[in-house]
Amino acid sequence: MSNMTRNRLLDGAFRAVGLLATLLGLLLLAVFLLDILRTGLSRLSWQFLSALPSRFPERAGIYTALLGTVWIMVLTALIAVPVGLAAGVYLEEYGRKSRWSALLEINITNLAGVPSVIYGLLGLNIFVRFLRMGSSVLAASCTLALLILPILIVATREAIRAVPKTLREASFALGATRWQTIWYQVLPASMGGILTGIILALSRAVGETAPLLVLGVLAYVPFAPKSPLDEFSALPVQIFNWISRPQQAFGINAAAAIIVLLLITFGLNGLAIFLRNRWRRHLP
């Protein structure tokens, strides 16, 4: 058997395995979604969305958890996005290529794969205990900001790296400074990829449960947070609490809450795809 024939056979085998794995994943996802929809769709109503938590499943709602999730998403974005964007721009445009920068880049990439519970322990020691923020919205947002910060830095660097060097050279040739080139040329050209990374990172933060449980976020909060220092609940914590209860009615509530959380996540992912495609169409 010649090398060319062997390579073709291996290529066909890899393609078949990849296609089979993709179909299997889609099938499992479809089964999961259908089961969740069949169980929880009938529970979705305005009363479910606007009601407070209750020990009676037919009265329980996700109002406080939903508002807590919104608070987390907004504060996490306000904390993590400026820092991640600035760090990515500095490392890619201003940082010198050296052993230190290479080591730093490897560590940032590795931090993106650290289990989320580790960030929860870090947030517990720094924000909850040392800075005495308690189990507040601000403590959870700072913890989740640390969680998604490596993802934002990597996404920003990759988006900036994809900008052609000729664009920078043309800007320099016209007399622009480095900062003017970055602000008026590089960032607009890479903003599609940057926005995609930001939204995908936020969608991961919204669905995290382990860091919130480690921080001591409450499952039963009879009020909605009104400031960053208030205690709160969140949809992942509420879902975890309902699933752990023996009553079947709470399982139905959990399925309905999962549908809401999936809608938020899919909405963020769809927004990322829309913004990326829209930005690419407007590029010259």
From TrEMBL:
Name of protein: Phosphate transport system permease protein PstA
Organism: Hymenobacter qilianensis
